[in-house]
Amino acid sequence: MSATKIAVIGGSGIYDIAGLEGADWVTVETPWGRPSDAILTGRLGGVEMAFLPRHGRGHLHSPTSVPYRANIDALKRLGCTDVISVSACGSFREEMAPGDFVIVDQFIDRTFARDKSFFGPGCVAHVSVAHPTCPRLGAACLEAARDAGIRVHEGGTYLAMEGPQFSTLAESRMYRESWGADVIGMTNMPEAKLAREAELCYASVAMITDYDSWHSEHGEVEVTEIIKTLMGNADKGREMVARLPALLGAERAPCPHGCDRALEHAILTAPEARDPALLARLDAVAGRVL
After folding, report:
1. Cα 225 from chain centroid?
2. Active-site residue, selected from the candidate residues 37, 105, 212, 260
3. Among residues 48, 61, 51, 15, which one has the least CA distance to residue 235?
4. Annotated catalytic, 147?
5. Taking 70 as the threshold, does the pLDDT of residue 87 lie above it?
6. Inter-helix orientation angle 135-147/223-248, to 10°
7. Exactly one of 37, 105, 182, 210 is catalytic; which is it?
8. Cβ contacts of residue 268 below 8 Å, gap of 6+?
9. Residue 276 pLDDT more than 60?
């Protein structure tokens, strides 16, 4: 058994968590640069928590400029065990309406301008992301959302686009009709992949703000309309997060799905051929196996 430490990465509209005991904003240095912001730490319901505003307080980072590697490294460095992403998304499904939450379990990665791995020349590793989210953690988020009275959908495929522009009508129709995506956002990739490389359990909660551009009765996406829904979703997100400590508990067993052992057989580079400089940068992320 080990101590649970829940990390929440808050997307647009969620820039803090209320009610943390001993709340303190701490600055974390990483070999991958500065995280999006300082990290709010404390305890909630007897469980250690850390909160990182993905875009920074004041929303300074675009989806492309978010320092994803630094963010995940910083959370791992702080001892976090479980990472919950809460982010605003568009919906491709009539039944997944604005104001609803979706517990994401699959991704289609269409991003192209981001660093997607901690590994590379000098230390090559391949982790499995066939199932990119942790079912145990996703189930806890589902239960917490239901307990908070939120209309929530179990399972969904998240299309990660580069942004910052929203989809064209043709793209929106393709993602919905041909590719079978359920929601669309700009930030969960490469975040989910990096969390897996860092052996962190990761769950994604999509907070629906709009119907993207495919819906004939709702027109194109407008930021002013999104913000209205965003504020209500942010309050719901905080209600969900407040219920997670009781569900996850202060102690945790090894992940039954192996998220915390993802690097066990992933590193291919022979020990004598590994780059010492890269290994030094991997101290928090992969120190367990290196």
Report:
1. 24
2. 212
3. 15
4. no
5. yes
6. 110
7. 210
8. 124, 125, 126
9. yes
